[in-house]
């Protein structure tokens, strides 16, 4: 059965933003507004384009002066953007617009709060907004369908959950799109002439940092682990940014019942009257929760007799031959958001059956001599790597890269019994090596030694070199030497990629190519 929805006029009116509350709707006082947009990525471009369409006086600032950026700048000038400033020389001083300070600043998510332009704007009490909040303030175009906002965040699994949620909504017959941090700017979604019934909005902590207030139908925090501490300044600040997603939610705040911190976030959130806390767990669910019972994904939250019954949503066999625990958890979170939006159980099962995992996330790439080779380059932090490592025993682990200020001790303590050999890439994976030496002293480790270490070999230097492709070929070759029957070679770095690769995808492709070369030798 679908969840009954109250009539629109029965829902409480969402709270208004405290900062420039008059800047709402397509007919708001945007014309002539002096606006700076920082960053010319996909969200920055969408923000500048939208503000220009609204009649604002827009100046865009980006630190990169590349040919691609120049082409984008020319396009923005054509649509009415007043000025585009490219290059590092423009990052130290907030630009004036017609000789005056800007009235708002819309920032791309990569800009840190302590960057000069953001800090100067806040010191001058100029509102700093995300592209996401700008989209929420505008709403759908006049005449288009006003969508339900279903929003989610978490340290890991956001994109998987957003794409699953989108699929569930579409299988239910709703016009829906996954947007936000997933690659499609929310502004592009709300500017669609027809409009959408629902938006599956993936939000990063960076986007939430600059978002004052949303009013989603349902919201979710998938999980929380130490990540981006260098950007936010502390784990507490990182958690505070994530927790903002629950504020002002209308119907359902979805939390991870296996992580008490997410439940605490819900308890502390200022939500709309009548909003419910809905848990999800990979174990047996309690009342007002979704979970797993005897290989079935079930709902004990969105049905009338939830005290005594559970509604079947899907089975573990619907995932195919592999149903990793983290994927089941993400599916349950997506299902909770979907059920809050009225999606029928059969649509959820259909979405699960059709789901195909994206590249670089626990991606099998080869099997030979009874050794399985897995690419999980998207595991860019310890929490994501742990999800992979829990899925296998007898692991030859390729790991390492930029640690982003995280600590590895907890990860190594948990997964040490699964490790048979470790190969460390990355220009400085010494912290990971130290954790392995403390908490997995019997596991052989190659790589991760500092340049100053007298025992550092030529092999160590290659694994830590700036040539990422060469480092990966070397790591794969060493893994092949260590692997035996029934082992899994898992490349799940638990770190970012930018020290040796252009992106986590480039790192994953390097692993795939190296394994392919190994198989043809």
Automatic annotation (TrEMBL):
Catalytic activity, EC: 6.3.2.9
Subcellular location: Cytoplasm
GO-annotated cellular components: cytoplasm
Chain ranges of the Mur ligase C-terminal domain: 360-493
Keyword terms of this UniProt record: ATP-binding, Cell cycle, Cell division, Cell shape, Cell wall biogenesis/degradation, Cytoplasm, Ligase, Nucleotide-binding, Peptidoglycan synthesis
SUPFAM superfamilies, per database record: MurCD N-terminal domain, MurD-like peptide ligases, catalytic domain, MurD-like peptide ligases, peptide-binding domain
GO biological process per UniProt: cell division; cell wall organization; peptidoglycan biosynthetic process; regulation of cell shape
Gene Ontology MF terms: ATP binding; UDP-N-acetylmuramoylalanine-D-glutamate ligase activity
Catalytic activity annotation: UDP-N-acetyl-alpha-D-muramoyl-L-alanine + D-glutamate + ATP = UDP-N-acetyl-alpha-D-muramoyl-L-alanyl-D-glutamate + ADP + phosphate + H(+)
Cell wall biogenesis/degradation keyword on record: yes
One matching Pfam family: Mur_ligase_M
Pathway where it operates: Cell wall biogenesis; peptidoglycan biosynthesis
Residue ranges constituting the Mur ligase central domain according to the UniProt record: 153-338
Disordered as annotated region, ranges: 1-24
PANTHER family: UDP-N-ACETYLMURAMOYLALANINE--D-GLUTAMATE LIGASE
Family indicated by similarity: Belongs to the MurCDEF family.
Role description: Cell wall formation. Catalyzes the addition of glutamate to the nucleotide precursor UDP-N-acetylmuramoyl-L-alanine (UMA).
Name by which UniProt lists this protein: UDP-N-acetylmuramoylalanine--D-glutamate ligase
This protein's encoding gene: murD
């Amino acid at each position: 059965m679908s969840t009954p929805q109250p009539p629109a006029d029965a829902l409480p009116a969402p709270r208004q933003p405290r900062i420039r509350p008059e800047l709402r709707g397509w007919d708001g006082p945007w014309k002539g507004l002096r606006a700076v947009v920082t960053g010319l990525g996909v969200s920055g471009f969408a923000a500048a384009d939208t503000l220009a369409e609204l009649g604002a006086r827009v100046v865009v600032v980006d630190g990169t002066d590349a040919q691609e950026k120049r082409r984008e700048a020319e396009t923005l000038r054509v649509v009415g953007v007043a000025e585009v400033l490219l290059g590092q020389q423009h990052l130290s001083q907030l630009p004036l617009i017609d000789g005056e300070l800007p009235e708002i600043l819309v920032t791309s998510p990569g800009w840190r709060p302590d960057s000069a332009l953001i800090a100067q704007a806040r010191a001058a009490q100029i509102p700093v907004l995300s592209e996401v909040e700008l989209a929420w303030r505008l709403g759908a175009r006049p005449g288009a369908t006003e969508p339900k906002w279903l929003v989610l965040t978490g340290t890991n699994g956001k994109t998987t959950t957003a794409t699953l949620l989108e699929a569930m909504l579409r299988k239910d017959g709703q016009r829906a799109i996954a947007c936000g941090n997933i690659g499609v700017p929310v502004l592009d979604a709300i500017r669609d002439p027809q409009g959408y019934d629902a938006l599956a909005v993936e939000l990063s902590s960076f986007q939430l940092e600059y978002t004052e207030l949303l009013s989603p139908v349902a919201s979710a925090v998938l999980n929380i682990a130490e990540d981006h501490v260098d950007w936010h300044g502390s784990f507490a600040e990182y958690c505070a940014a994530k927790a903002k997603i629950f504020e002002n939610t209308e119907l359902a705040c979805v939390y991870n019942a296996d992580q008490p911190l997410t439940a605490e976030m819900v308890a502390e959130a200022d939500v709309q009257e009548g909003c419910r806390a809905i848990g999800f767990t990979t174990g047996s669910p309690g009342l007002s929760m979704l979970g797993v019972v005897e290989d079935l994904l079930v709902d004990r939250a969105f049905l009338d007799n939830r005290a005594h019954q559970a509604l079947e949503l899907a089975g573990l066999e619907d995932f195919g031959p592999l149903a990793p625990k983290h994927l089941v958890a993400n599916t349950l979170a997506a299902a909770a958001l979907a059920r809050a939006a009225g999606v029928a159980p059969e649509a959820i099962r259909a979405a699960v059956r059709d789901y195909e995992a994206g590249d670089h996330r626990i991606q099998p790439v080869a099997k030979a001599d009874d050794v399985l080779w897995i690419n999980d380059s998207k595991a860019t932090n310890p929490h994501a790597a742990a999800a992979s490592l829990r899925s296998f025993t007898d692991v030859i682990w390729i790991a390492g890269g930029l640690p982003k200020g995280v600590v590895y001790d907890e990860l190594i303590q948990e997964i040490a019994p699964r490790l048979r050999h470790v190969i460390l890439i990355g220009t400085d994976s010494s912290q990971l090596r130290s954790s392995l030496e403390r908490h997995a002293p019997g596991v052989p480790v190659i790589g991760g030694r500092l340049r100053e270490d007298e025992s550092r070999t030529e092999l160590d230097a290659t694994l830590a070199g700036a040539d990422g492709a060469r480092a990966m070929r070397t790591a794969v070759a060493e893994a092949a030497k260590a692997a035996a029957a029934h082992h899994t070679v898992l490349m799940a770095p638990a770190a970012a990629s930018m020290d040796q690769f252009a992106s986590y995808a480039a790192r994953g492709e390097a692993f795939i190519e190296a394994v392919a070369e190994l198989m043809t030798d």
